[in-house]
Specification:
This protein has 107 residues and is mainly β. Helix content is 0%, strand content 41%.
């Protein structure tokens, strides 16, 4: 069963390399990124220490937790380095009627 799609931001308002945020009804805080090639959406919370990733630095397609340095792939949510061992929750992203949307059902 597919989840509901949510409008996040108009495509033209998010430049390559930027991020924005969206809070789902269940309180999940999602970071949405416009990458060089496409978009990505992750739950903005490190799985190691439950530290918010809103201002975390990005290197290539990885986000780095500023607390302990854990790295995650923005595209897949996969852990790229310790101390984290649990992947980030990711969300499907699409463009619909000029809006960047995320889907509530997550991987």
């Amino acid at each position: 069963m597919n989840g509901q799609w949510h409008d996040v931001i108009a495509v033209e308002k998010l430049e390559i390399g930027e991020r924005t945020f969206y809070d789902l009804d269940d309180g999940t805080h999602v970071a949405v990124f416009r990458l060089d090639e496409g978009y990505a959406a992750i739950e903005s919370m490190c799985t190691h220490a439950l530290f918010e990733l809103d201002d975390a630095p990005i290197e290539g397609d990885q986000i780095i937790c500023p607390l302990h340095g854990a790295r995650f792939c923005l595209r897949t949510g996969a852990v790229c380095s310790a101390p984290a061992y649990e992947d980030l929750r990711t969300f499907p992203v699409r463009i619909h009627n000029g809006m960047i949307q995320i889907q509530e059902s997550a991987s």
